[in-house]
Write a structure and sequence with these properties.
Number of helices: 19
Helix content: 25-40%
Distance between the termini: 30 Å
Shape: globular
Strand order of the largest sheet: 13-12-14-15-23-22-21-18-19
Low-confidence stretches: 560-598
Largest sheet: 9 strands, mixed
Structural class: alpha/beta
Strand content: 15-25%
Mean pLDDT: 89
Number of strands: 25
Radius of gyration: 25 Å
Length: 598
């Protein structure tokens, strides 16, 4: 097994996750099998109980793991399925050592950071790196490891010590360290400054790790004299210094690495020269080029409570982008704070009017998942506006639940209909706490991971979009569900529950049949959307917003392009003005629309 470690210096947010994903993609393009590990130094067991404002969205895996959003990047770039153990945290490591100590595994010895914590980290890495994640048998050839945080952080010192020992133990030809650092340009002098990177590398070396490759983030390509200076002071060959300058879309990052022969440097360090091919990235290049060509917009109103941080809805944004480019549209997101739609905000006319202006100007409305009662009434108003005005709507998790509540209030006349999450004493509970849920513990107690949904017939839009399969497997993250005792009343009034679980009592998909596109799902389809394989329901939303839904539904039976659908390889559709990539396949890729990461 070969290991590539990606670390970061100077400041956070440099793009270590994108760099690690791009390195993995580049090595995969060379014919190697690749897996990934993300190390997060925080003491939480996982990301499940953290606010999106802390670390962005919580990404959910097939096995129910609630992990860092970077694992979503790995899955999308490499088209793999990771496990909860591919995300290592200090909390997990310390808990495993504590459990061993209580069992008596260390009987008679003093348990210490070195060697017990550091040994546990190394054992975890070796064990997880050998787990196949690409659907094939046997371990991967290369494991790309991203160390979260910044070199010098106190909380990551035990990981750095462990990785230093690990690099010595596996041998120099099995370990490559890529250090991502910042080379800022000061506006006053207009000069690229190397001192931050010099100090970062010095700090890294003082902790027992020596970088093989420098990946330097800068607004522009590094000057030759700057690279020579970095090489001299950081003790890294100049041909092993890579510039990661700003590009038009994120799909150009792997191409930057390829053009600067980063794969040659990595393969040489890992003693893999002559054992691989040149990277095959023709289709990727065509996709990156197409990303820059889209100019006809589609406007999606994103109604949520975390609209101040785009990373809170990262996978949703990426799924929208996949679908938008498949429909040959440039994605434009209109962020609508849900609470600004509420009557209480009318006392602040500017916020209230702006929110409603954005909502009414959108081609489609999306209400993503969330927790807590802040902004719920605003989301209900958004769902009502979409239903009554026949605007394409997609509700995910909570977005589905509030759509059911709105229907009960407006159509059934149950003005006090609500969820017991927001009103425990409501007389008409449309949404209830799941019986198996824990009322005492929050972490890891929701209905998590891949679950099966059975379609109730083939006439619904969702069933057609998924290729008329009898069932699908999608990822879940919720502790409340539609009250099964109210389902019949809702269906009699015109709300169709077109997807249910194996018991038939848990509602998974809801639709308004006489609406152009009004769909709510209890699961999170965004987590399985991939480049070239847009999520079926996101594709339906964007197609409906751009007048292409009828064509998409009619051609679904043709199954001409691969589509991500959860459980099996369903083909996508021929889209309006579809073009062919260099390799002859129809495009179905995604790009950065209006400046958003993809």
């Amino acid at each position: 097994m070969k290991y590539v470690l990606v670390t970061g210096g100077v400041v956070s947010g440099l793009g270590k996750g994108v760099t690690a994903s791009s390195v993995g993609l580049l090595l995969k393009a060379c014919g190697l099998r690749v897996t990934s590990i993300k190390i997060d130094p925080y003491l939480n067991s996982d990301a499940g109980t953290m606010s999106p404002f802390e670390h962005g969205e919580v990404f959910v895996l097939d096995d129910g793991g609630e992990v860092d959003l970077d694992l979503g990047n790995y899955e999308r770039f490499l088209d793999i399925k990771l496990t909860r153990d591919n995300n290592i945290t200090s909390g997990k490591i310390y808990q495993s050592v504590f459990d061993k100590e209580r069992r008596g595994d260390y009987l008679g010895r003093t348990v210490q950071v070195v060697p017990h914590i550091t040994d546990a980290i190394q054992e975890w890495i070796e064990r997880v790196a050998s787990i196949p994640v690409d659907g094939k048998e046997g371990p991967a050839d290369v494991c790309v490891i991203e160390l979260g945080g910044t070199i010098g952080d106190i909380e990551s010192l035990h990981f750095i010590e462990a990785l230093g020992q690990f690099s010595y133990r596996v041998g120099a030809e099995n370990f490559c360290l890529i250090h991502v650092s910042l080379v800022p340009v000061l506006n006053v002098v207009g000069e690229q400054k190397t001192k931050p990177t010099q100090h970062s590398v010095r700090g890294l070396r003082s902790l027992g790790l020596t970088p093989n490759i420098l990946a330097c983030r800068s607004t522009t390509e590094l000057d030759v004299n700057v690279m020579e200076k970095l090489s001299r002071f950081c003790h890294v060959p100049i041909e092993y210094i890579i510039t990661l300058y700003d590009v038009s879309n994120i799909w150009r990052v792997p191409l930057l690495l390829r053009d600067q022969k980063a794969h040659d440097a990595i393969l040489k360090v890992l003693n893999l020269n002559g054992k691989t091919r040149e990277p095959v990235l023709e289709e990727w290049t065509s996709r990156a080029d197409l990303c820059d060509m889209l100019n006809k917009p589609v406007r999606i109103a994103m109604v949520g409570k975390y609209t101040g941080l785009a990373d809170s809805y990262l996978s949703v944004l990426k799924a929208l982008l996949h679908a938008s480019v498949a429909c040959h549209r440039q994605l434009c997101i209109d962020w609508v704070p849900a609470s600004d739609l509420e009557d209480a905000t009318a006392q602040e006319p500017e916020s209230y009017e702006n929110a409603w202006k954005l909502l009414k100007g959108a081609d489609a409305i999306l209400v993503p998942g969330g927790f807590g009662d802040r902004g719920v009434e605003g989301k209900i108003l958004a769902a009502k506006y979409a239903r009554e005005n026949r605007i394409p709507y997609l509700g995910i998790c909570l977005g589905m639940q509030i759509a059911v509540i709105e229907f009960a209030r407006s159509v059934l006349g149950l003005s006090n209909a609500n969820s017991t999450e927001f009103d425990p004493n409501t007389q008409n509970p449309c949404v209830i706490f799941m019986p198996e849920g824990s009322t005492t513990h929050m972490g890891g107690t929701m209905r998590l991971g891949s679950r099966r949904t059975y379609f109730q017939g083939t006439s619904s839009k969702s069933a057609k979009l998924y290729g008329n399969l009898s069932f699908i497997d999608e990822r879940h993250r919720h502790r409340y569900e539609v009250n099964p005792d109210m389902v019949q009343r809702l269906e009699d009034a015109g709300l169709s529950f077109t997807g249910k679980d194996e018991s038939g009592r848990r509602m998974e998909i809801v639709e308004v049949s006489n609406h152009p596109y009004f769909v709510g799902v209890q699961f999170h389809p965004e987590f399985k959307s991939r480049p070239g394989k847009p999520s079926a329901l996101f594709l339906g939303l964007v197609a409906a917003a751009t007048g292409q839904l009828d064509a998409v539904l009619k051609k679904s039976a043709a199954k001409t392009c691969s589509m991500s659908n959860g459980s099996s390889s369903v083909k996508a559709h021929l889209y309006e003005n579809a073009t062919k990539l260099a390799n002859g396949s129809l495009d179905g890729i995604y790009c950065n629309g209006n400046g958003l990461h993809v």
